[in-house]
Amino acid sequence: MKKYILTLFIAVFYLPAYCQSNSAEKVYTIEAGKIKAHVQPTMYGIFFEDINMGADGGVYAELVKNRSFEFKEPLMAWNELKQDGANGSILILNRGAVNPDNPKFIHVTSRSVKGYGLSNEGFHGMGIKKDDQYNFSVLAKQAMGSNVSLQIELINSKGEVIGSTSVTPSSKEWRKYAASFTAKETEPKASLKVLLKGAGSIDLDMVSLFPQDTWKQRPGGLRADLVQKLADMKPGFLRFPGGCIVEGRELDTRYQWKKTIGDVANRRMIINRWNTEFAHRPAPDYYQSFGLGFLEYFEIAEDIGASPLPIINCGMACQFNTCELVPVNQLGPYVQDALDLIEFANGSIHTKWGKKRAGLGHPAPFNLKMLGVGNEQWGEQYIERYKIFEKAIHAKYPQIKLVSSLGPFPGGDIFNFANETFRKLKASILDEHYYASPKWFLQNVKRYDNYDRNGPKIFAGEYAAQSVSTGSPENKNNWECAMAEAAFMTGLERNADVVSMASYAPLFANVEGWQWTPDLIWFDNLRSYGTPNYYVQQLYSLNKGTDVVPLTLNNETVTGQDGCFGTAALDMHTHELIIKMVNTGKEEQSADFVVNGIKMGSTGTMTLLQSDDLTSVNSLDKPLTVSPLKSEILFNDNHVKLRLKPYSFSVIRVKMAD
Question: Taking residues 196-206, what's their average pLDDT?
Fold first, then answer.
């Protein structure tokens, strides 16, 4: 009896809602036989900049901070050790006349048999994994009359040794010495000790510790889990090295690609321009070692199947900071750097820079097709310099497509001037940036509907919804922001004949060392996770298709009716129809998708990204709070009925019938 009453109650309680949902069913029409636009292979990609400790202390796997003693404070991150009463001294020496790119080193003197030396704190500690191998190396030379060796120890947060080895420098000249050892336990906050054994003096430089387990097992390489997250997106392009990093706060600290290739010991370290940018997140220990340099960027792009998109300085420092300019009549070296970069990427091994690339272990060219001139520049000075670059580059490399900046804002006088000017100049690709509220993203889904179909292509080069306000340290990577981005991206894809590339920014953030939020991927010393925004970007990239087809509701493009946004595309490679639908409303909606123009199969899949809580975020401890769930669906007579959950992003894939 109780069971009967309960069943009746539930049926009566839910029946009205079920009937209401059915009566409100919306019929969406997909004209699969009418191609609207071709989707470029580069449509969804990755923007990388060394912000939030994205390179040093992040994807670059070096565990020692300030390994070459080139910080403004040469012993920053290092501490003197005097174990068991040991005594000694440390001097900072400078060989700038001999090696201007790496002038400083330390002269260590021990007056004890053992126990004197230094320890390095790493980047908020060193992430160490049990049973993994670690490779230590150092540049060293014995002082005249000395004969000391080095004891190397990994120390956990309790002060215990969890791995050790030793090296014995034997030469009075600079030599590299290396040794490996296996860690005894996992420790997220380890430190490294370098202790002298024997009384005497020794010179040290480039003190380094890397995990053996790097991306593709490359010595001195990249952190495997972070690069894997990029590979899992299957991006169409990789933009590097930024971002404002390209410009520098002043021109002396701009990014110079030629100084980032070759022996890491000769890559000149400079301060990171995000070091003092934000008063709320000062980072006095944030420098660029350039261990992740231009060769490595090109290799990453090649590894993950992305087209490389390097950005070069155009003779302008950051206009938000110093506004420093190179006089136009002194721009020659900057232009030559751009020409040499193209030769480095594409030239045969018989060219100067192609030979240099081959000598670094990559004889095959990188097939560079695009180059950005300037990052986020604007105004007449930028236009004047851009014209000089364009003329020189296209005179020698007419096939290279140039990316032109429209400034830091998606509208206003700065944007309008650049947009009008570059269109008159018949530019190839225009780079638009927008950091704004979720509401802005929803309101701008139609942004590109009326753009000139025969004008320059659009690169949505930097965008991210801001949960509080642009640049606020309180911004969160919550589901509301990610869902708004998903809705906005339906407009990018629907206008794929205008928009050829898009990338979220910034990419990486260290949970203990960030300057800007929100960010796509967060990490600590051992773990990493993708945000809800990451999964939105990934789902678009994995499901971009090849050709956009019309998706309508009552003969109108689906751009927010009842809170729903959508786009449809064919994938001619897999012979599938792909439907993307975003329901930003708080109510579930019933939808019937009717496909005309092609014969569909009977089964498909639906991948759902959804949360009832718009404030939901992922975290290191709960990395999959908002993450994709995949299920099977049925197609019947070329249509499928679906329930679009509230606050959801759904991707439907269905095979075309043979």
Answer: 97
In DSSP terms, 578 is beta-bridged to: 569, 653
Indicate which residue of 376, 432, 480, 485 is catalytic.
376
Rounded Cα gap, residues 241 and 59, in angstroms? 13
Nearest 10 degrees: Cα torsion 157, 159, 161, 162: -10
13 pLDDT tier (thresholds 50, 70, 90): very low
What digits encode the pLDDT tens for the residues 413-446? 999 999 999 999 999 999 999 999 999 999 999 9
Backbone angles phi, psi at 571, to 5 degrees: -110, 100
657 CB neighbour count, 10 Å cutoff: 12
Q: For residue 657, what is the DSSP state?
A: P
Alpha-carbon distance of 209 to 179, in angstroms, equals 10
Q: Tell me whether strands 648-656 and 600-610 are parallel, antiparallel or unpaired.
A: antiparallel
Strands 547-549 and 528-530, bridge-based pairing = unpaired
Residue 130 DSSP code = T
Q: Name residues whose C-beta falls within 8 Å of residue 564's C-beta, 6 or more positions apart in sequence.
A: 26, 553, 558, 581, 582, 583, 584, 585, 589, 591, 644
Whether 8 shows a pLDDT value over 70: the answer reads no
For residue 487, what are its two tokens? 């809705």
Active site residue 376: yes
Q: Rounded to an integer, what distance in angstroms lies between the CA atom of residue 439 and that of residue 488?
A: 10
Average pLDDT, the chain: 95
Distance between first and last Cα of the chain: 54
CA 356 to CA 349: how far, in whole Å? 8
Distance, CA of 566 to CA of 238 (rounded, Å): 26
Question: Could you tell me the two tokens for 72?
Answer: 């403004």
Q: What is the pLDDT of residue 1?
A: 33
- Residue 19 pLDDT class (50, 70, 90 cuts): very low
